[in-house]
Specification:
Largest sheet of chain A: 9 strands, mixed
Shape of chain A: globular
CATH topology of the largest domain in chain A: Dihydrodipicolinate Reductase, domain 2
Number of helices of chain A: 16
Number of domains of chain A: 2
CATH architecture of the largest domain in chain A: 2-Layer Sandwich
Radius of gyration of chain A: 21 Å
Oligomer: homodimer
Helix content of chain A: 25-40%
Strand order of the largest sheet of chain A: 14-13-12-11-7-10-9-8-15
Chain lengths: 448, 448
């Protein structure tokens, strides 16, 4: 889509979003997409690789400030036997030149969190759809600005939340939809992942080997760790809330109404620095704001409760801590078990494995072999597929700008609650009243 | 101890509590205890049975209003070959006559929750120590009144919270004390128990078989269910918070500072009535206030966070949901696993079994065989033993009146928070400033 087409779309945007139809309001369907990738670090490379696998997608431009990362990205084009892209580099804002010069249908953004907001805003202003890695912005106002920009420009914004497509989680979604759990009552999820070797490294490798971060760090340690210095709240809520949101029909008859967060003391990151780098290392003097464990409770309009846990600074095994509980039973991933009244033994757990196989989602049945080898157990394949397929067809993305905003805004809301003695705070309604009439369009079939 | 001795003690009480010494301030140690049991329902019978096993204890009086329960209780005296007690019956307040007539050292109270408060108040006024089943009172004020009454009379009040003595929980307490988890950061517990067949029965059996409660119910359904009709909050926090409190040294250098609670919608009890008794049953019209899942977060003075879950109205397997997490690792009971940095495999769970065996508490090593056959996996033995042993020796009970109040007051605080949009509420400091100087006296050795 070029700029003149974009301008025509803009006029339609209000109507488009107010009725959210199933087909072709976001441009004419096309057989081929022209996309740009902003950010070709380790995460961007995976999203790029998946885009390059597709026959319907041309990655015409890539953009990064790190020569090493760009060079690795180019090798992916070689491997995929695809034409080299135009490369934009040399300045953190060079992406604007890419947006102005290239005729793009969409961009995929995989940059540090704080860059997501300006890049997405500029992309939509340039008439380009946005598929953005998780976290939309830093403040509540930025989330509103993205939503309004999308509505004004008629450009879609989809947060590329891959856990929505985790195989077991999608099977549980099918079970929810078929009423296996009865009426949903309480759900849990979170991000419980020992990131200490992501937050700190030796400046050369992506994982561990030192206690450097910021200018001296490499990859995520360069930027992600500073958020743990400056902020205290659930900094990474979307892996948990994304899938739960789809089970609860958020923005398809339901919405988040209020939130409270509580943070523990902060010990883990400091202790890690002292243990690994010694008490004399300059970073041992850094004071981290982020509580080691941040717990958040959310209430929905339909009166379900949601528990989110953020736990990234202590030694622990990885677990997203899912629990899906309704009037007829529950599933938990930590013990890989399920209990369903009148079907499993009373008061007993049953191994969930057979259930997850039985309710395997049609998307996984169709694309499971294509997803093999894709990042994070294959789920990255599906989230890229969903974004590009919806854009190509001119249909609404299955994760809407409203979804993306409501999931990501949990971070600033939880920071507020932590800073205010865990008092509760109401959610903004990014749909402006339409949450109760919008349809559910996430993974309804085996298309995307 | 008779009334004149009691009066002498009263004068000492202020001093006694202000220094909380280890020995002999609650009366002279004696080789034999005279106790009364108020409430000989199913729970009271178990506590009675354990008391009758002891050579140092004479159960001289029992009290109940149900002839059937009294008759079952008498059989326990037969079995134990102990002299029959004086029986007080015929009125809900006949216990007062028992307190006035009998020369008791202590009473054990195992009556409906709403009776705990007046009975404990009257017992302390009569110069009798109190061992009371869980839940101290209904309002915050009642909790204060119990604490003040105990201080004024010099009579001890111990909540008989048995889970403090669960074998795995005590092993984990040992691990905490030996620093295996490092500095504690976040703990979880709760009461997740499908009580639908406790809350409803056929009026003849204690578990299930019908959907009656209140006047038409039997045993706990007679009184417990009404709390689910009238109240919305964490109605049963002590099984979770008791053990966690001891790990966190609450009232031995730490205290609960604030709390927030959130409740889901209420569906489980109504659905059960309709499913089991039919939509035409009169109880299908009862509106239950208690949310099916009530989640509570507590912050401590030392900045640990605690998560409590109350889940008693839905089909599910029993789980108290313990999690004990510090700077060096964590234990969870739901997956029976542990992770300790530099000892277990990085990022991996290890089965907890061997750890729990290795750190078996000295009390269990000494009394494990005596505890066999006691209720709830043996832990009932230890809680009765601890209460009677401390009273006999004239030493402070290992669960103090301050502990008991702080654990039980969670219920009215959580009701307040649920009713106030999950805003946070500060804990009362029942120790009146002494929480930071009182010693830890819980299970420090193999005595009690």
């Amino acid at each position: 889509m070029n700029r003149s087409e974009f301008l025509k779309m803009t006029a339609l945007a209000g109507t488009a979003f107010s009725i959210m139809p199933a087909k072709a309001v976001f441009g004419n369907p096309s057989s081929s997409l022209r996309i740009g990738v902003i950010g070709t670090g380790l995460r961007g490379q995976e999203l790029l690789r998946l885009s390059l696998q597709r026959e319907d997608t041309q990655v015409v431009a890539i953009c990064d400030i790190e020569p090493l990362m760009l060079s690795d990205a180019l090798q992916l084009f070689e491997k995929a036997q695809k034409p080299h892209p135009v490369i934009y580099t040399g300045s953190p804002v060079i992406y604007r030149e890419m947006l102005a010069k290239e005729e793009l249908d969409a961009v995929i953004i995989a940059t540090p969190w704080e860059w997501h907001y300006p890049m997405a805003m500029d992309a939509m202003d340039a008439g380009v759809h946005v598929g953005c890695e998780v976290m939309m912005g830093t403040t509540v106002e930025e989330h509103w600005n993205i939503v309004n920009k999308s509505l004004q420009t008629g450009k879609q914004y989809m947060m590329l939340e891959n856990v929505c497509y985790r195989r077991d989680v999608m099977a549980v979604l099918q079970m929810v939809r078929q009423g296996i759990f009865g009426e949903l009552i309480h759900l849990q999820g979170g991000y419980q992942h020992d990131l200490r070797e992501v937050k700190f490294n030796d400046g050369k490798q992506a994982y561990g080997g030192g206690v450097e971060f910021g200018a001296n760090g490499f990859s995520e340690a360069k930027w992600r760790t500073q958020h743990s210095v400056d902020r205290n709240g659930d900094l990474y809520p979307t892996h948990g809330i994304g899938p739960l949101s789809k089970m609860l029909n958020i923005h398809a008859g339901n919405r988040f109404s209020s939130l409270v967060s509580m943070a523990s003391k902060a010990r883990g990151l400091h202790d890690y620095i002292v243990k690994t780098g010694g008490a004399e290392h300059p970073n041992a003097a850094v004071k981290f704001s982020l509580g080691d464990i941040v717990t958040t409770m959310i209430k929905t309009a339909n009166e379900e409760t949601i528990l989110l846990q953020h736990d990234t600074s202590l030694p622990r095994p990885y677990s997203l801590g899912f629990r899906v509980q309704g009037t007829k039973g529950l599933w938990m991933d930590i013990n890989k078990s399920i209990h369903i009244e009148d079907i499993t033994q009373p008061h007993r757990w049953e191994e969930a494995k057979d259930w997850l196989t039985k309710f395997d989602h049609p998307l996984w049945q169709k694309y499971g072999s294509d997803a093999q080898g894709a990042g994070h157990g294959g789920m990255d394949f599906f989230v890229v597929h969903a974004f590009l397929e919806a854009i190509k067809r001119g249909e609404p993305t299955p994760i809407s700008v409203f979804d993306s905003a409501a999931w990501s805004v949990i971070t600033p809301l939880s920071e507020w609650s932590v800073a205010n003695n865990s008092n509760s705070i109401d959610f903004p309604d990014f749909t402006m009243g339409k949450w109760n009439t919008l349809p559910q369009i996430f993974a309804n079939n085996d298309d995307y």
